[in-house]
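Two folds, back to back.
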Amino acid sequence: MGVGGFAIGTTEFVTMGLLPEIADGVGVDIPTAGHIVSAYALGVVVGAPTLAVLGARLPRKGLLVALMTLFAVAHVALMFMHTYGGVMALRFVCGLPHGAFFGIASLVAASLVAPQRRTQAVANVLLGLTVSNIVGVPVATMLGQRFGWQAAYVVTGVIGVLCVLAMLAWVPVQRASTDGSVLREFSALRRPQVWLALGIGTVGFGGMFSTYSYISPTMQTLGGWSAAAIPFILSLYGTGSTVGALLAGRVASRGVLRGIFVLLGAIAVALALFGPAAHSKPLGLVMTFVIGALPSMLVPMLQTRLMDVAHEGQSLAAALNHSTLNLANALGAWLGSLVLAAGLGYEWPSRIGVVLALLGMGVAAWSAALGRRQTATAH
């Protein structure tokens, strides 16, 4: 399942590095080609809840295989697509399995281990996503530049096929839920704690995206790095993300919601320091690693929190986590663009991130207070 995460992470971020080649290949300008990124994100937002709910009564292993098969076929089909509209449509299809795959894979991973190791099991599935930023995205970008932009997607599709074969061989069969249904899955949305957990992800995680979306011009403008150094800096960020995913289980062992609150506070501090640190090359590299590590600890903990509070609607809630992260991506990047357009400078996107992280802490505190009140009422 981690191999599937690697494939999904590669396709999600490789488009940014190949926009000039894609624009030239389909005959549009680069800003217009940027809508292809939005098409994939829209596919994630639409596909995550839809496919998770429709597959509620299906065996989870079979559903995972079907989702990754759709992912692989859509990517290989891009080899034969040369029009802008066709590429937009296929990239939307490519995004459909993203959130549902991660959501269902997280549930399967958590079911295979002892309760106290659930967060680490979820993190191991998401580990493929972080490793893709170190290996998958740079390699796929290189192949796309050398052999044509379609090559990057075809290779990603081949990785998806490998994931299907690996899951068929090693993921144990899990029976379909006998009481699963569309209405049962949607019942999770009646729970305030589910909405609060989704709110933590949307607002709190948006702080990371407000910074990461502009890390290339930030490091070049504030730190004096050349464009040639940016792939190394991005790989360092990916390395931090991988380390953070490996540590998520240890942080969660002290309590999932407590860990979320502490991590959001740490993210707020790190983002506050990032702007001033970026003026120094050594400190800028250190803080790049840190802002990669801290949010990647947060994602599996948010996933576990949703699984805890959704009760009978776990498939939908787990998948919605990735829809909210894509909304966080859009929110953070948009707010960062506003301060840059206002001429405030590249220190400001990370300052916006501080505000978002603090707001996320507020939502987490609200969730904790509601939980205590519900426990007291039950007693």
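---
second:
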Amino acid sequence: MQHDHRRLGRELGLFGTDPLMGAGLPYWLPDGAVVRHTLEEYVREAERAAGYRHVYSPVLGKRELYEISGHWDHYGEDMFPPMELGAEQVVLRPSLCPHHALVYRSRSRSHRELPLRIAELGGMYRSEPSGVLGGLARVRAIQLNDAHIFCTPEQAVEEARAALALISRAYADLGVRAARHRLSLPGDGGKYVADPALWERATALLREALDSSGIAYEAVQGEAAFYGPKIDVQIADPAGRESTLSTVQIDFHQPERFGLRYTGPDGARHRPVMVHRSVIGSVERAVAHLLEEHGGALPVWLAPVQLAVLPVGGAQEERAYDVVRRAGELGLRAEVAGADGGSLGARIRRARLVPYQAVLGAREAADGLLAVRLRDGRRPGALPAEEVLRRIADRAARRGTGLWEPA
């Protein structure tokens, strides 16, 4: 069965658009903001555990910054026009890497600091044609999970391998399947920086990272970034159309353009390598794909509402709110689907994408039980309320895509 994330987004109340905001500029509703925030915190936590340091940088930069990086010459058609600020021109950034290069060179660096892993969930803007915009999958305002690793040439392969492993773990936790891995190489034309030796060197390092990781891949001409080759982790929508979600890139170009250096063990100044990597790509595209991959039934830890408590009648509502309060104390997102919302059957149907439903009748309320229903159709039965909440909290904390394990 095919699922359209735009329909699911409306049905679940996750995001919307308005002509007054403009095409390709969606807004996030409260439940959608929960999904986005949870996904962003997951990525930050995974990056912290992997040794990344997080930074913030502005979404604007002087035109000169992008002239140095090469974006102005090689990527200008996808950038918004510059804005005049006195004698200067500033632009909305199309990527975060120039900003991170400036963070790196904000002070002198020693080889002992390398690899230096800088990460940011930052906004960027691309002037996408109106004909390709749609829902969250293709937008003009992008929240990108981006990172740049500054390392020695000898460290580059291991850092690329570690990035691939981080991507693989995230896909397992999110229940996402990679359609294929693509080694994206330059093609003909003038959109790529001209330095054949550096292209060959970077390509060899990426091949080594893929081969040593045991990952099958296809080499494709014409899909590289303008400054270097990249590994693209491809996903497919329900219609089979591919897009890139995650990337790993090795870049010798921008460290040279920005004059980046580190002091080596020999006391001399050396040029670092810049490894670009994104675990989930843009938050917008990641959420669009998750909705379609799971048909709106998001993994427990990511679902905007994890538990719906359904009192059979008004007499059980006070107890239902007690359960929700206790769930909140355990870090769960729970709501009461009260009797004023219609028959019990209608409320169960409306909550069909919520991972857990807990029916609360007179007997359950009196005995401190919850009659548990899982969205996959299983019914573990009436269990002590505290046990139910503990098991759900444990399942959410362990992430992954499972719903219920035997006691």
